[in-house]
Amino acid sequence: MNIESIYKKYLENPIIETDSRKAGKGSIFFALKGDKFNGNQFAKQALDSGAAYCIVDEDPGFLDDRIIKVEDSLSTLQQLAKYHREQFNIPFIAVTGSNGKTTTKELIHVVLSSTYITYTTIGNLNNHIGIPLTILRVGKDAQMAIIEMGANHQKEIEGYCEYTLPTHGLITNCGKAHLEGFGGVEGVKKGKGELYDYMRANKGTVFMYADYDYLKDMSKGIQDIITYGSQDGEIRGESTLTDGMLAIKMTKGMSNETINTQLVGEYNLPNVLAAISIGKYFNVPEEKIVEAIESYTPTNSRSQMIRKGNNEIILDAYNANPSSMRVAIENFSKMPSKNKVVLLGGMMELGAESLAEHAALIALLRQHSWSHVVLVGKDFISPPSEYLHFNDVAEAQQWYRQQRFDNSTILIKGSRSMQMEKVLE
Fold first, then answer.
1. Where in the chain is the domain with CATH 3.90.190.20?
2. Domain topology for 88-295
3. Which of 133, 328, 368, 425 has the CA that lies 20 to 30 A from 283?
4. What is the CATH number of domain 304-424?
5. Class of CATH domain 3-71
6. Which residues in the chain show pLDDT less than 50?
7. pLDDT at 300
8. Where in the chain is the domain with CATH 3.40.1190.10?
């Protein structure tokens, strides 16, 4: 069965599921395969749950008119997403980068959705499965779409662009993330730069943080570039901290002098300016831009401020890499609290650079004064340090429960696999 025929069935049953337990009436179940699962084995379960059709790439072992056999279920899902994408003539904004892409995406969404019907990536469904699912959730009423693209190796962003077909693009930054897969920082730039390559080849529009010279170099040859930054750009703003929260004094491009956010850390300045820049570009009224940004509250353990009793907890445990760890520590050091507690989990996917990068973090911690420093995970075992170390988050949680913190500010950060948020459970 060709994509056009599958698309007709999708229009009749516009709910796409890859989990047979969630398949129900009006859905199409795609049987995907991974290292530890094979969706083909759950086709009958999906049909019994009410799925209208099942897309499989292996013989399910039974006959049913609702089974559609294809060569590769994942490829078919991506082709279907592309076909759906081609039905729209609206802005599709792609967002990628080493740090801050999810927060940036969320800020752009709240700004644009104040004026337009806007669809965006849910959570961080930003990979080869999540992106096509996101595209297929874009409704006929859409006026804007924002697609977040994550990547841990080269050619990944290039592949996403083939079925996302972005008209606008934004790279937040290129830092020390997924070094093992990208092969170093230059590999990160090349991999993230694949979005710029697509924009260059397809005459798209790029929103660029002008403070980063490397983004200027990477974007050469792109005709339509909208800039923002603290020192340069069409939209400019300077960061300050108010009770630990980011406030932005606008210096160019906005009549409002100050925007008070609910984001922790000056490192969120580029993320906010990106949303302002895109809002202005698409003619969102300034008062709606300001209201949207000031009302936005981060969730999902991303720069999230939690107040428990008379303690303040900065929960930034969704992900971590050397770049984001450094700015989080440096920002935390500037906060006015006298009793500062740092709990850091190990950083993943650093390959041969892991030992040096964890050692560099310890050296950075030594430059500041803290009430307590707790390091969690095997990556912090060597080199040894004077700081408290636990093998896993369960041990750290036990220690945390035994403390009686009072008027303290606590930073909790680590890679996703460390699940540092469990310290608070």
1. 304-424
2. UDP-N-acetylmuramoyl-L-alanine:D-glutamate ligase (3.40.1190)
3. 133
4. 3.90.190.20
5. alpha beta
6. none
7. 67
8. 88-295
Distances (CA, A) of 331 to 263, 273, 275, 361: 12, 18, 21, 14
| pLDDT confidence of residue 7 | 98
Query: Where does the chain hold its CATH 3.40.1390.10 domain(s)?
Result: 3-71
